[in-house]
Design a protein that fits this description.
The protein has 16 helices and 12 strands. The chain has 475 residues and is α/β, with parallel strands linked by helices. It has 3 domains: 103 residues, Response regulator (Rossmann fold); 183 residues, no CATH class; 155 residues, Heat Shock Protein 90. Helix 5 runs antiparallel to helix 6 and helix 7 packs antiparallel against helix 10. The longest helix is centred in the N-terminal third of the chain and has 53 residues.
């Protein structure tokens, strides 16, 4: 049961909050002033703090600063009757998660605020744990790849004692595997750094998932290369060479009379065919590895650009943003066999926060992929349209051929907590709609019903001439 600490010098308010929240299955602690509240906080470590802004001795701002210093992840909601906007700004600047005004006549507002803050704290904890788990898995896989690389190098050195063709193949393998390993290590380091960027947790999580799937494919190719090296015919070649050296003085008789000597020419011919086939297989695997590493590099470079951006509104080419979103979702689109149809009728420059718009585009593309899950290859198509409307707004349309949305659910699709998918929280579309509103735009959805697909329409204001001069401004 979550524990809530309420700090207020008015006993009636404390008891009102306590009785209401306890009826809502919360465990509530009370404190009559800031000093007592901080003492209780140190011993009880509650899940959320409700604090009055104006109290004697230690006021709410001091309590807020002290709690943030010792426990920065604890949600703090400031409640005050002052009604001064400066107090709210100062509280939020110091780290308050929300601000409510007294009197709280509708306690359901208090309950909604508490639930939202606790849910946000839970998501932050889960995201941090997920990132740590991914970093651990990437580190483990990197060590395994390094060990595989060292094994390949040792094997290559042994093969150099053989025929010239074997030496050339293994030399190229050693160099290419070493280069691919360095690229993977660099991609991992860049991935971990970008995943920790503030405001990019959702995009980074999707990127990590895509990189993990690509790494699985790379591991399969590495195992194929290792199996090819372990199954090399070098031992037989060395044994045949040893027999030739032992009969160097009578090679003619050895090849024509000796039972084993007569088999050597045919053995060398068959060995040449095997080595040629092995070489083709190794070259195919190395080309496949190169393709996967290039895909990881493209995804990482795109994600890094957005991790370095500010969230302020600025002029941005819409088509470039759409292409970046498709690049980030490229591995998922490829894995699910989704065809992309681009319909760029115009190339508008809109006034937007690139980070926020990238979040919305990534979520809508991912949502479309999930909507088409379980359908046949011919039915999976995602269409992206970019155009300029008659009222001079930039419009992006994301259309899928998925399972569609029933008419009775269309008007609730952007509601907080509403979802049509099991094991989902229903935050993505709600957050996307709010972000579009913050950017002065809108987000709408259309569907003809089940199995008829869905269309999401994003509308954004066009950039003025002064805004266009700051296109792709980066920090």
């Amino acid at each position: 049961m979550p524990v809530i600490l309420t700090i207020d010098d008015e006993r009636a308010i404390r008891q009102s909050f306590r009785h209401f929240l306890e009826d809502c299955d919360y465990d509530v602690l009370e404190a009559a002033d800031g000093g007592e509240g901080l003492e209780i906080f140190r011993f009880e470590q509650p899940d959320l703090v409700l604090v009055d802004l104006r109290m004697p001795k230690i006021d709410g701002l001091d309590v807020l600063a002290s709690v943030r210093e010792t426990s920065p992840d604890t949600p703090i909601v400031v409640i005050s009757g002052t009604g001064v906007i400066g107090d709210a700004v100062e509280a939020l600047r110091l780290g308050a998660w929300d601000f409510l005004l007294k009197p709280v006549k509708d306690l359901s507002i208090l309950l909604h605020t508490v639930e939202r803050c606790l849910e946000r704290a839970r998501l932050i904890r889960e995201n941090r744990a997920y990132q740590q788990e991914l970093e651990s898995k990437v580190a483990l896989r990197t060590r395994e790849l390094a060990e595989a690389n060292r094994h390949a190098i040792r094997t290559a050195r042994a093969l150099r004692a053989g025929e010239a063709q074997i030496r050339e193949i293994n030399r190229g393998l050693e160099e290419r595997v070493a280069e691919r390993t360095r690229q993977l290590e660099a991609a991992q380091a860049e991935l971990v750094e970008n995943a920790q960027r503030v405001g990019m947790a959702n995009i980074a999580a999707g990127t990590l998932h895509n990189i993990g799937n690509i790494l699985n494919s790379v591991n399969v190719s590495i195992e194929e290369l290792q199996n090819a090296v372990r199954g090399s015919k070098i031992r037989g070649l060395l044994k045949a060479n040893e027999m030739i050296r032992n009969h160097i003085g009578d090679l003619g008789s050895f090849f024509s009379v000796h039972p084993r000597g007569r088999l050597i020419p045919e053995y060398f011919k068959e060995l040449g065919d095997i080595l040629t086939a092995d070489q083709r297989m190794l070259e195919d695997e190395l080309r496949y590895l190169g393709t996967k590493v290039a895909m990881m590099r493209d995804v990482m470079e795109t994600q890094k650009r957005y991790a370095d951006l500010t969230q302020t509104r600025q002029g941005a080419p819409v088509v470039d943003l759409v292409e970046d979103a498709l690049r980030l979702q490229g591995p998922a689109l490829q894995r699910h066999d989704v065809d992309i149809l681009r319909d760029y009728r115009d190339h508008p420059v809109c006034l937007t926060s690139k980070v926020k718009l990238m979040f919305v585009l990534n979520h809508l593309i991912s949502n479309g992929i999930e909507a088409m899950e379980g359908m046949g290859r011919a039915s999976k198509q995602l269409t992206i349209q970019v155009l300029t409307t008659r009222d001079d707004r930039a419009e992006i349309r994301v259309c899928d051929t998925g399972h569609g949305i029933p008419a009775d659910k269309l008007d609730r699709i952007f509601s907080h907590g509403f979802t049509t998918k099991p094991k989902r929280q229903g935050f993505g579309l709600h957050t996307s709609a709010n972000l579009m509103t913050e950017m002065g735009g809108s987000l709408q959805v259309f569907s003809k019903g089940p199995d008829q697909g869905a269309e999401f329409v994003l509308a954004l204001p066009m950039a003025g001439e002064s805004d266009k001069s700051t296109v792709y401004l980066e920090t």
